[in-house]
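Batch job 17 of 40 flagged for manual review because the log was empty.
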Amino acid sequence: MKYAIIADIHANLEALQAVLQDMKQQGCTHTACLGDIVGYNASPKECLDIIRGMNIPCVKGNHDEYCSADTPLGGFNPHAAKAVVWTRDQLTTEDKNWLKNLPYVMTVEGFTIVHAVLDDPQRWGYVFDKLAAAASFTHQTTSVCFFGHTHVPVAFVKDSMVRGGTYQKFRLESGKQYFVNVGAVGQPRDGNAKAAYVVYDLDFQTIELRRVDYDIPGTQGKIKAARLPPGLE
């Protein structure tokens, strides 16, 4: 059994389509989504329809929450806030209700999925270092938990201590816990412009980071056409 673990699609239809194609080529049999389906880019309705139609395990991201409600956006940077306001106008009431009803944390086939952190997941904390990862490990009840939110793929491992670093492919070891960021489908922030996601092979107990080319000019053109902030391109 192979799970494709995707996160932070952010309304980037071109990146999502490229990742879905790569998932098929990799022989993935199941998919789980770590949230932030919408926000930033110009295809929120299309991406939401695809993910909802797949009927897959999915948790809520902060952009999913803010784009489906009328919550004030004081904590957002100006570009992100403008994209949230624009996205709200693109979604139907049914779309917003579906996003609102997503859980913050789920257990799937013996592993955990969350958008940001396990310690108080509704506050959208960021995990960039071992100290922040340690806080989530204290709430982790499975051997593996996948998360997103930072758009930067990194794997943390807990045995007698917490270690962390970048990765491409590794095998899980018995007795250890793993807190793994799968990177972003729609807006990578690690210096690699390719879409990112993870293939989790439950039979061989391996986790592989995949990077996929997509139509970046096409995505940028849609952002310009929608008159979204130029900084999002």
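Reviewer: the log was empty due to a logging misconfiguration, but the result itself is present. Residues 9 and 186 are 4 Å apart (CA to CA). Unflagging and moving on to job 18.
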